[in-house]
Design brief:
alpha+beta, 11 strands, OB fold (Dihydrolipoamide Acetyltransferase, E2P), about 260 residues
Amino acid sequence: MNCRKSAQEHIQSTMEKKSLSSLFVALSEPRYCHATKKTSGSKIFSLYCNWREIVWGKNVNGDPVAREEFRTHHMLNLSVDFEKANQKAIKFCKDLNVTKRLYLTDEPTHQNPYNYRTPEEIDAEKKWETIKHEIWAIRGLKNLVKKHSYKIADLRTKRLTPSNYFGEVGERSELNLTLQFNVDFHSNFNGRPVIRWMNNLVDDKGNVFVYWGNKLGNKGDVINLKATIKSHDVYKGVKQTIINRPKVIEILDQVA
């Protein structure tokens, strides 16, 4: 198949798909060869075609979305003379009834034809770049919200069920508490390793209790215990009742 017939079929195919964007005449971009230390480029003007291709990406929700990107294709060589090359391009496009898609310049230019875009194509690419950056920004915001959603949920819980102090300091009370979490802290005492646990618990009214000492159980355990009110404290704006000397009476609900 010769180049002219191949070019005709490519244009007809892109016209049928309504994806043909532009046709233009150009020389290839001059390139410097480090081996020969010379700059060289194409000496013949050629006809190139820009066409739109469907590619798939994702929207802010991660769903597949189709978009168009420009592709450039070398159609055929025309002439080493710029004026003759333009005339041949006009005749070729007129035969295929695509003259309106042909963009010609008054002077020959050296450029990379695969980077050439018409003003309309440049605007289309700028619009997509703007949309792409907006999608990235929204994705980043969604990931940030998702990453810190537990903090939002925690703040909402604290707002809906604010913690208050329980009992009087020095008072010993029987309590039913749910263990929210516990954290172990390692230290040394007289050269011996010591593990101390911080247990964070809550009652059915949302009041927060803290006990430092042994591990009382696992997250989610509901514990019936007797303890002494040691003090009342505030941590990050949350009122806490500090207890000591707890005596576990019964595990009402144990998480496996």
